[in-house]
Amino acid sequence: MRSFSRIVAVVVFAIAALASCKSQYELLLQSNDVDSKYKAAFDFYQQGKYQKAASMFESLSMYVGGTPQEDTVQYYWGMSNYRFRDFYTAEANFSKFIESFPGSPFYLDAVYLRVDCLYRQTLRYELDQAPTYTCINAINEYLTEYPDTDRRSECQAILKDLGDRLDKKAFENAKLYYKMEDYQASRVAFRNILKDDPENIYREDILYYIALSSYKYALLSVPEKQKERYLVFMDDYLNFISEIPDSPYRKELNHLYVKAQKATGNYTGAEEDVEIDEHAFDKDRKAIEKATRKEQIQQMKAQKALDKAARKEIKASEKAAREAAKQAKKN
Description:
0% strand, elongated, Serine Threonine Protein Phosphatase 5, Tetratricopeptide repeat, 331 residues, 15 helices
């Protein structure tokens, strides 16, 4: 019993010792020494310790209400979270800042950074695109309100990236029907894409899959339905070649058109043109898809370069805003 009491005493002592050994950072975080906290917050920020800086600015925000430091603390609270890549919290910080400090020298930067946070919260095309639509609306509002902004090129690049992402999602969703061999639904889905968005970046591929879907739907139909369905394919084929006569897909579609002509009793050419193995076109299709992926990778690299340039510009804007804030306080 005595031994157990000693163990309890040692544990209690250890806990008390640990509680008393708070770091200097923790002690400062809990203090009400505004000047020391203000200096420490910026020291952490300059050292790249953004999580600690964010916590310190958050703590400071409870003490600087109504002071000349208030907008600076709120802005750098957001910037610390932004640098820490906590874009959800940073967006909330900047939204509050925009509402509270319309006359601040940091205001225009905060408006843009809020948009940038929304962009960085968007998801891959396979996932929910609600954040994408939110961001697109925010950017359009920003460009309407600030048509002469120096960040127009960055905003347009973001809009293109998000638009391409939505185009890809629509294309891949329709392609699922094709992969499931539901060719009637596939054709309808692809046609609906162009009905809603004629400028979809995958327009050539969409027109190709419309024709391919109608051909395979006809091919797999009962004999009494085949002729009318091959005629639908032939219309899709003619529509495709009239719009994109030099497409790399044309060779395959030409072959399918010949087969459709024979199936409908309208073919007068050589028999060997009909008997080409359709697997011969698989290599061409794979090459086209590879080229498309390569182009997408190049676009991603270009977007990263724009992001890097935007971050550099944000740093320069921060410095200018800090100088303006110091000057305003002197006056």
